[in-house]
Design brief:
Layout: H1 5-21, H2 31-49, H3 52-118, H4 135-147, H5 151-164, H6 171-184, H7 188-201, H8 208-221, H9 225-238, H10 243-258
Helix pairs in contact: 1-2, 3-4, 4-5, 5-6, 6-7, 7-8, 8-9, 8-10, 9-10
Length: 260
Amino acid sequence: MSLGRGSRSLVCTAVLASGCAGFSTDGSVPIDQQVNDINGRLTRIERVVNNDSLMNILARLDQLQAELRSLRNDVETLQHETEMAGQRQRDLYLDVDRRLQGIEKAALAAGAGAAAIYAGIALAPGQLPLPGGSDRENYDAAFELLKEGRYEEAATAFQQFMAVYPDSALMDNAQYWLAETYYVTQDYAAALPAFQKVIADYPASRKVPDALLKIGYSNYALSKWRDARKALTAVATNYPETTAARLAGQRLDQMQGEGN
């Protein structure tokens, strides 16, 4: 910045007075020269004040202040985001906790239902073994009834399973074991179409070789020799590496020995 006119006059007067005090009264140093000297000195002072480096320092100071304000804003933003993240984490924890409690309650209910089934409580027609359970839990419960030799209840359980869970991946197995409940009670007339349904409805099922074997067995039990031989031969031919094929071969040998 430049010195004002009043300031320059004061400086000139002070310098002039001090300059005059240093000279003899004979006027050996002219006044004009002293004034010129003072003006030169004032000019140098103005140059220092107006120096670009000083302006750069002021500009840099303004920049630093702006950066400081920006940093403060970033800190405030981070603090807010941290608080929000903490809240989201708490909400997530509460949601997971609620879901786990629901699973635990369902498991307890399913366990109580399974205990009742395994304890020997009879199923009513149209009743699932585990009314609040999943398709897998009801399938396992029905299969457990079959293993316990409770064939009538197992049949009811499998029938109801297929009615309630028609899209379950266990449908083919359920149909096979339903047919098995008839077979083991020697109701071959009911077992035969039940096994045939496995092949007709689930041709890609892994139960097809076993179902075809039981079709042969059921026809054998019904003295339908031709149908029995046809089914057993199909097992041995189409599924040669299976246990069902080995059993079919054994029954075919038996039939040959019997003259059937």
